[in-house]
Amino acid sequence: METAAIQLKNLTKTFGSVVANDKVSLEIRHGEILALLGENGSGKTTLMNMLSGIYYPDGGEIYVNGKEVIIDSPSDAFDLGIGMIHQHFKLVDVLTAAENMVLGLKEKGRLNTKVIGEKMRTICEQYGFNIDPDKKIYDMSVSEKQTVEIVKMLYRGADILILDEPTAVLTPQETEKLFAVLRNMRADGKAVVIITHKLTEVMELSDRVSVLRKGVHVGDLITAETNPQELTNLMVGRAVTLNIERTKCENPVKRLEIRNLSCVNDDGVSVLDNINFDAFGGEVLGIAGISGCGQKELLEGIAGLQKVSGSIIFYPVDGSEPQNINGNSPMDIIKRGISLSFVPEDRLGMGLIGNMDLADNMMLRSYNKGKSPFADRKTPAELAEKVVDELEVVTPGINVPVRNLSGGNVQKILVGREIASQPTVLMSAYAVRGLDINTSYTIYNLMNEQKNRGAAVIYVGEDLDVLVELCDRILVLCGGKVSGIVDGRTTTKEEVGLLMTSLGGAKEAEKQ
Amino acid sequence: MTYENVKKEPLVRIAKRPELSKGKATLVRLSSILVALLIGGLLILVLGYNPIAVYADIIKGSLLTGTALKSTVKIAVPLLGAALAIAPAFKMKFWNCGAEGQITVGAIVSTYFALYHVDNLPSPVLFIVAFAAAAVVGGLWGLIPAFFKARWGTNETLFTLMLNYIAIGFVKYLRIGPWMDKGQMFPKVPMFDKAARLPEVFGVHIGWIIVLALVIFIYVYMTRTKHGYEIAVVGESVSTARYSGMNVGKVIMRTMFLSGAIAGIVGWMMVCGTNYTLSDTTANGYGFTAIVVAWLSKLNPFTMVGISAFLAILQKGSNTIQTNFGIPASASEVLTGLILLCMLGSEFFINYRFVFRKKTVGGDD
Q1: Is the pLDDT of residue A312 over 80?
Q2: Where are the domains of chain A?
Q3: Of A95, A224, A367, A395, which one has the fewest beta carbons inside 10 Å?
Q4: Which ipTM value was assigned to this complex?
Q5: From CA A343, how far away is CA A331, in angstroms rounded?
Q6: Does the CB of B357 have a partner CB in chain A at under 8 Å?
Q7: CATH architecture of structural domain A6-236
Q8: pTM of the predicted protein model
């Protein structure tokens, strides 16, 4: 049998009392794409970080091409030909692609960008990349930056490539391109590992799958011989059904009317340009777009956290006079009796306080009720108990700091608090980011429950498969403009993907 | 591919340890004080004295006689007051290094009433008026950096520090200018009239009762009120505070007014209760030592009582050892510094542990 590019034997890593990897043994082979599958927190990234020299294992051995090695720093990993592309790119923004190639390399002689550019071009031609060596990083799109990262690894002679959730930031079209490149690399005999939790990608791209669950290596499968359901069961540890029940919209009532909404951020850049849409009670309105296309500003603008121009008309449930809430602070909105809930993207940085316990976090939105100078701590504590109970939050009690909970439980606390007030409008940003499959489906169900209750649900998401399954309508943002509003039942993720990358999407594409 | 990997496992690594139980963590913290005392003892030994005798003398000179005990309490009271003053600001992560100046302006205003209204106001009214004025002016002095922080995001650490020098400089001006005691050779502010001196209870001015009441007040304020909750949220995350509808600027300004006001009251106590006059050193560094107290007690008002008593004992005791052994009083400051260092260092051992090399790999050795 051919020697494996990398062989891991009983690799263990602990952080305090948390066992991130428990005696993981697996093989990475040349000329093969291995998918490392697992839910968030199952230890995929930790495992690969030990290969790239970021963490040092507490136990176990690593063999590269049959020889036991010690990887104590990223430069050790480079020397062994291991290159890792992280979720957050490690590039210097103000330098060009070519300059980033050689950053940190201890080569003799003067910096000659022409030579570097030549070498880059060779690599690009070989694998089918397209990158301008003289372009500055800050001028690049996310997908271009990712390409630079990959080329950088190849430039440095990596023949084992590890990609940590590479498609999380890409549109479907960009993903296709990336996969083509990865297949070229495989053909060239390189060993490729992609870390992912998306089953469709595993099925499409990989040759073999290694599944991790709670830090334990639970199985190796040949992709061609397995199916998504089997993989899911393996990943979660029991059989789960994965479908979102999308009910029909029962007589939708207008709750929110957004007209001519524009926003210029602190740097003077226009981030939202003349946004118009309506949100209806009893409907889930999805908002899609490449990250940073104004989703954050749009929701924060409606919530009164971001200065915007235009009008935000709120239609109360009791049928009273519609109110324009633009220019109101979050406190004004509460005081005007407007029932608007918001699950922000940054859970522990905006939605919750990590160092406070569950009960104190329940108070955040309601602490100011009543005239007494003393804070009511009983009602929030009861609410915390109720949320823990109803949403099956795993916690030692309601008096533990929220930061001690896992990501999924943190989100349950946040969503639980926001829906507890029976909101008329419920906005959520990336509500399932980083959550395991089970919790994600819990969140989808909660959104649907709110919809069925008659709330207008606005759901900003990034997983297009989910958006087209969950939402009644999808508004697509592109560069701060509304690129299109499509019917969730009839659209495809390709159509949404096109709208994400170019205004008017499909129409533009047809013209070319 | 050719490469040479003859590296060894790193000799020492730092690894996160499982969370320690509360009792064990307290044990680590207490033992860190012990380590500090041991190092301090070594220092005394190097200076050529018997550490046990010196430590015994510190205790004797600060606690065991009535006079000594009273002087110790007189140090502990303003220290505790100043620590209580900065606690809300620190909880808000507003680094108020200006308690010194806030104490000083409180003292200035109190001195004004004590010097110029002692004849036309009965003593109790004088005390109350001076108390209120000291609180308001101290609060306003604290409000200045808060306003600039809330409005323009200025750095409060530098701002509050600079305001200290202005306040102390102003005292110098008063001392050699309008408020100079004409009958003295050395330019100083006159001593207060008897009627302007705070009454004593159990041999110490009534400030100690006020400070103990403040301990309760701050505890309740920080843990039970809406304001206290707002302070905690702003301290943890400004975005969360805004998200939950708080007016962050208002919270910062209100809290700093309170912080400055309590410091101002400490200034009132210093001039009316302890020194009976105003000088450049009225604040006596309490505003800075209070930062140490606040940190060591993790902003818990009740722990502050113990810590400030402990530091007061060291300070008073060091005066005694200076007289008896000729050890410089700054030795106690060295000891305080050592304790702080050891306690901060102990936090590291609560969270992390060292892992030593177990094996060698890859090489021929």
Answers
A1: yes
A2: 6-236, 253-339+422-511, 348-421
A3: A224
A4: 0.81
A5: 16
A6: no
A7: 3-Layer(aba) Sandwich (3.40)
A8: 0.81
